[in-house]
Amino acid sequence: MLTRRAILKGLLGTFLAGLFVSAYGFFVEPALRLRVRRWRLASPGWRGGPLKIAILADLHMGEPWVSLARFERIVARTNALGADLILLLGDYEAGHRFVSDSVPMADFARVAAGLSAPLGRYAILGNHDWWHDRAAQARGGGPNRIAGLLRDAGVPVLQNKALKIGGGAAPGPFWLAGLDDQVALLRRGGGYRGLDDLQGTLAQITDDAPAILLAHEPDIFPRVPDRFALTLSGHTHGGQVRIFGWSPMVPSAYGNRYAYGPVREGARDIVVSGGIGCSILPVRFGVVPEITVVELTAA
What we know:
This protein is of the alpha/beta class. It has helices at residues 4-32, 68-79, 105-112, 127-131, 134-139, 145-152, 198-202, and strands at 35-43, 51-56, 62-63, 85-88, 101-102, 121-123, 161-165, 174-178, 185-186, 192-193, 211-214, 228-233, 261-265, 268-272, 290-298. The chain folds into two domains: 1-32; 34-298, Purple Acid Phosphatase, chain A, domain 2 (4-Layer Sandwich). The longest helix has 29 residues, at 4-32.
């Protein structure tokens, strides 16, 4: 028989469980946890030797969740992974209003310059890097403030630019192409205007060496040609809340299709990093902040 005491115990248990989940989602997972998430891909489009890539996406830096001290620890841990190449995939400032103190982007760029890998470290921009740049929004384009700070610190920023990197040693030469952001500029009447130029970036690739594309938002992937063996993206944060491999809210026109992790369509691969920081609300549940590592080999 259901007694009054049993009902009260049930209500108390529900309350405590909700309290625990809220505390974990708002304070523990987004602020205290960090993992290295590894994906191993044998790509049909990759013809070079094995390539190990470390990825930092969506830092959204701001106290108390992603402080400068925490970023310094992330940089040290990333360097210790022994990656051939380190990539920053955009959205460097906090994407919500709940920060207790902002992190100066000049300090962020200085610490980011400490990333070290044999084939270098490269960055692209995300939507928040443009949205928070009021001067760029007013003039309807660049130069972008954070891009300038990163370049001044010695970190190359790829804005619709393709570079050939590597050489005679393994993994051999390959192209690294980075798009500018797809929803960079806010329109006065609503909506967005992108600054990405996929065709112009593709035209800079002048030989048949394998190619990798960096694009902050994964929504461009259906339009990415087979010329790119791998696309690397962030932006979604894995939905920030992910339950049994499904995210109830994903900032993508494709919903969960490109919410998180590796996806293969035809001969092309994309890996979407879960990132580190938060947007809109400082909450994560089931999407632990991560340094993403992709170990790429030929199929």
